[in-house]
């Protein structure tokens, strides 16, 4: 019986949603457009000003606008996305998700213990476990997961937990 204890914070909830959105083709297309395509178009205008009109100061200003766009707009989009994610969850939902949690692997199920009590999830209902540099996500549906921040694990070995959870999921599937 492997068990880990950890704490989920609001920043971890935001990180999970960002992790989910990284696979969104539409979002990636928008980011590419604002990081490369639009600045590239503005640079073409700057080059036109420089070579055709020989207007060096205007070309430099337009080039700076392209640089500002390429760096500033993606940062603004990420900030805006984080604000939307924060508004997505009510105070009740945050209270249910955030805080100290304990996960225990049993033979037939995964047991989650938190401030609301104990819940059991059959291994057949667990889709997968994804590990990143800072997190492990135990997916219980396509858009919901148990968030395990590596930095807040206070009891147990996360590496062993993930390995054993993967084995249980394979056996159940």
Give the arrangement of secondary structure elements:
Blueprint: E1 2-8, H1 10-21, H2 25-51, H3 56-88, H4 91-97, E2 99-105, E3 109-114, E4 117-122, E5 128-131, E6 135-141, E7 144-149, H5 158-172
Antiparallel strand pairs: 1-2, 2-3, 3-4, 5-6, 6-7
| Major β-sheet profile | 4 strands, antiparallel
Number of helices: 5
Rg over CA atoms: 23 Å
Q: Could you give the order of strands across the largest sheet?
A: 1-2-3-4
Account of the protein in words:
The chain is an alpha+beta fold and 173 residues long. The chain has 2 domains: 2-9 and 91-172, Pleckstrin-homology domain (PH domain)/Phosphotyrosine-binding domain (PTB) (PH-domain like, Roll); 15-88, no CATH class. 54% of the residues lie in helices and 25% in strands. It contains 5 helices and 7 strands. It has a 4-stranded antiparallel β-sheet with strand order 1-2-3-4. The chain has a 3-stranded antiparallel β-sheet with strand order 5-6-7, with helices on both faces. The longest helix has 33 residues, at 56-88. The model has no long low-confidence stretch (mean pLDDT 94).
Structure characteristics:
four-stranded antiparallel beta sheet; 2 domains; three-stranded antiparallel beta sheet; alpha+beta; PH-domain like; about 170 residues
Please give a quick description of this structure.
The protein has 173 residues and is α+β, with helices and mostly antiparallel strands.
């Amino acid at each position: 019986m492997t068990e880990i204890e950890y704490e989920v914070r609001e920043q971890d909830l935001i990180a999970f949603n960002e992790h989910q959105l990284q696979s969104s083709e539409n979002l990636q297309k928008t980011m590419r457009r604002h990081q490369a395509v639009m600045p590239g178009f503005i640079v073409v205008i700057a080059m036109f000003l420089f070579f055709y009109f020989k207007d060096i100061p205007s070309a430099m200003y337009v080039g700076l606008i392209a640089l500002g766009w390429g760096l500033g707009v993606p940062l603004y989009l990420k900030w805006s996305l984080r604000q939307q994610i924060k508004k997505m969850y009510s105070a009740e939902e945050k209270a249910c998700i955030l805080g100290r949690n304990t996960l225990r692997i049993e033979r037939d199920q995964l047991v989650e213990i938190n401030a609301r009590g104990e819940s059991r999830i059959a291994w057949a209902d667990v889709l997968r476990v994804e590990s990143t540099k800072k997190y492990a996500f135990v997916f219980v549906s396509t858009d919901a997961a148990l968030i395990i921040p590596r930095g807040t694990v206070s009891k147990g070995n996360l590496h062993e937990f993930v390995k054993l959870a993967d084995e249980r999921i394979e056996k159940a599937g």
